[in-house]
Amino acid sequence: MDTFPRLLLDHATRRPHAPALREKAYGVWQTLTWAQLAALVRDLALGLSAAGLRRGEHIVVVGENRPRLYASMLAAQALGAVPVPLYQDAVSAEFVFPLNNAEIAFAVVEDQEQVDKMLELREQCPQLKRIWFDDPRGLRHYDEPGLASLDELVAQGRAQAADRPGFFETEVAAGTPDDVAALFFTSGTTGNPKGVIHTHATLIDRARAGQRFDQLTDREEVLAYLPPAWIGQNIFSFSQWLVCGYVVNCPESASTVSIDLKEVGPTYYFAPPRVFEGLLTTVMIRMEDAAAPKRWLFDRCMHLARRVGPKLMDGESVGLLDRLAYALGDVLIYGPLRNTLGFSRVRVAYTAGEAIGPDLFSFYRAIGINLKQLYGSTETAVFVCLQPDHEARADTVGVPIDGVEIRLSDSGELLVRSPGLLKGYYKNDAATREALTDDGWYHTGDAGFLTPGGHLKIIDRAKDVGRLMGGPFDGAMFAPKYVENKLNFFPHIKEAVCFGDKREKVCAFINIDFEAVGNWAERRNLPYAGYTDLAQRAEVYQLMLECVEKVNADLAQDELLAGSQISRFLVLHKELDADDGELTRTRKVRRGAIAEKYGVLIDALYAGKVSQYIETQVKFEDGRTSMVAADLRIVEARTFPAVRSAA
Fold it and tell me: For a Cys staple, 156 with which of 47, 343, 462, 491, CB 3.0–4.6 Å?
């Protein structure tokens, strides 16, 4: 079972009536069995072949998680073609480079929104000749050459079946593990994205390594709600799905994910830190609105949970009274809270993509959720390091798993060698030579080290780790992401960007969480006209100052990073947005782009100004632009002397 189509046919043969995929449509969950999925993939493959898709060619897939989009990827792989998933929330201009770079002539998309993007690009991408859509709503009167529904493609494939008996099985048999299985375009923080080439062998090997590590079975339930173009979602809901044979559930829409999460009750869950931050923010907002007795009970139980919960999760001994008190708390608070979050059945939960705040991590483990961290990237097929049960720590990302070797370069950069490494970057030999050594080591670009216990600790991106120059912390290490993650834990802060390399002190931009701060303001009867107005309220600045100074006090306890305390900050007048080029599609900060775009604000922070006027252009989803202007206040924050370790 060394290619994805063969894995599919194996499940369809051994367990034809077992559920493979579920999709919620019009409020009702619809189930697709492995036998039904195999038949759908066969029809799609025959239809794509009749349309002209050939072995080695690329086909783009754009949309939310949908069974027929997954089936389209499998159909392309069955023919030896290469699916290229792209981010569904990207603007059309972001599709131009991948479409032209991979010479893509075929596209399978979800709905009218994605069809409109593809049609808009036809002049810039003249090779794009065929577009199939899954959801026909709004497309009835479209009359464009090469545009058709997936229903028509399936019907065409069925018509071909009688004339080409055995064709599908022959094509699947012709595939090899070393064939390219998918092309993932990184969301990169600088320049054009790079196409990461993965074979069936690399993706299946890492999926199986993860399966062995957590003893995954075909009885797991997974909710697929993150972008399929992100390799993290792709591994969990495609590669491991086909390896393990568990059930993947597709939500009705992005707005119903929280409801669908409770209905599905996943046993195996994966999300980046921002999702866990959002869930916790929702909980905290609800608790702030609760009656005083409920808030008192919640606070008392959470105080106990933070002290006892992680020890219970790690298998450590706990006193009888604490154990009994925790059991009572589980009945009153923790169990209902897990149910409210949709995590009642979670056996294994992972977070990855970027570092998670220690307090955030501890919160979930404290209430009995087996949240662990993993380390990986698009280039490594995700699974490099995972945290074993009972060894989950907030400050590490786990131990190297089967087949992985790790070493550190002289500069402290992490190098990885693994069977899951990329084959190379598509049409970019220079980038491939830069990333891969002749003896098979991959340059991750991350700075980190192995602890005495064998766990990997990541400090930051190697290129972002710097040094302060001058001032009381001259020469001290500056790790911006480490500081930003501490700020992002606070429910009222959505994003933070820190500056300080080769400067005498650290300064920061802060984005408030509009929902959380809006709720906070309403309970205090503070009027505001919108995001920009709320962000510049004196009361909001005081709230942010308290958060910053708590982070500074915490940083002062770390002798190595005490110099990274924030001296001055401002609250941005707009939310950082991927459409404005400030974040990647996976919500990673484009630090260079932000520094260039807001250079006047950085200069004001370091020049000692108390305010700075700025006008910024923003882009809306429909392509329109507008200007946002504000006079931003700049605030001094208290810093603390570093606590020296005992000699």
Answer: 47
